[in-house]
C-alpha cells in the first residue's frame, strides 16, 4: 500500500532504528489531548525506558512548560521547538529544527530509547515526515464531532495508531463512539484504533502498551 495517499507521503513500516532512539510523533487537531497523552506516556514509561520529549508550539513554549511543571521528566529531557505559523511545516517539510532537537537530546542522553515528538495542533492532514518520526500516533477527540473519522484525512487514515480521546465526554457532546470506531476502521486498512479517556484511565494503558511494543520491536529488529 502507500501511493494512493499521494503528496509523497510514503506509508510503510519504519526502518529498524540502529543505535538511536525510536522517534514517535504525536499529532492531531488543536486541543485533542496530545500534551496530556504525552504526559501520561512519560509517567507510564519513564521507569522502564530511557526517554525524552520534543514539543512544537506556534509562538510559545507552553506545552514544554506544562510538561516541566508537571515534572513528567527531568527538564533536560524536554525540548521546545517554536514553529511559527504553520506547525505542519515543521514536522513534514522543514524538519531540521526538530531533527536538531532530537540530535541534541541523543547527544545529552547516550542511552536514549524513545523520543516523543508532539506536533503543534493542526489539521487532519498533518502527518509527520518519515524522516522525522519512525512511528506516529494521531489523536482525535470526541468533542471535535463524530463525523471526523468518516471525513478521513491522512492523519486518521495513515497514522500507525489512531487514538479517539476524551470518550468520557461522548455523552455530553452527543458523539457516537461505535460510529467513530467503525468509520475509522473502514479507512485504516487494519491499522489499530484505540478509544481512550485520560480522565478514566490517566495511565493511558492501551496506548502505553502499544508504544512499549513499538520500541521493543524497533530495537529487536536493529540488534
Ligand atoms: N474530559 C477530558 N479532557 C481531556 C482528556 N484528555 C485531555 N483533556 C483535556 O483537554 C484539554 C486539551 O488537552 P491538551 O493535552 O492540552 O491538548 P493538545 O492536543 O496538546 O492541544 P494543543 O497542543 O494546543 O493542540 C486539556 O484541558 C486536557 O486536560 C480526556 O480524555 N478527557
Ligand atoms: Mg499540546
Automatic annotation (TrEMBL):
It comes from the Bacteria. This is Urease accessory protein UreG. Gene3D superfamilies: P-loop containing nucleotide triphosphate hydrolases (3.40.50.300). PANTHER family: UREASE ACCESSORY PROTEIN G (PTHR31715). It is found in: Cytoplasm. GO terms for biological process: urea catabolic process. GO terms for cellular component: cytoplasm. Homodimer. UreD, UreF and UreG form a complex that acts as a GTP-hydrolysis-dependent molecular chaperone, activating the urease apoprotein by helping to assemble the nickel containing metallocenter of UreC. The UreE protein probably delivers the nickel. GTP binds at residues 28-35. The gene is ureG. Belongs to the SIMIBI class G3E GTPase family. UreG subfamily. SUPFAM superfamilies: P-loop containing nucleoside triphosphate hydrolases (SSF52540). Facilitates the functional incorporation of the urease nickel metallocenter. This process requires GTP hydrolysis, probably effectuated by UreG. The lineage of its organism: Bacteria, Bacillati, Actinomycetota, Actinomycetes, Streptosporangiales. InterPro entries: CobW/HypB/UreG_nucleotide-bd, P-loop_NTPase, UreG. Transmembrane segments: none annotated. Keywords: Chaperone, Cytoplasm, GTP-binding, Nickel insertion, Nucleotide-binding. Its main location: cytoplasm. One of its GO terms (molecular function) is GTPase activity. Residues 24-194 form the CobW/HypB/UreG nucleotide-binding domain.
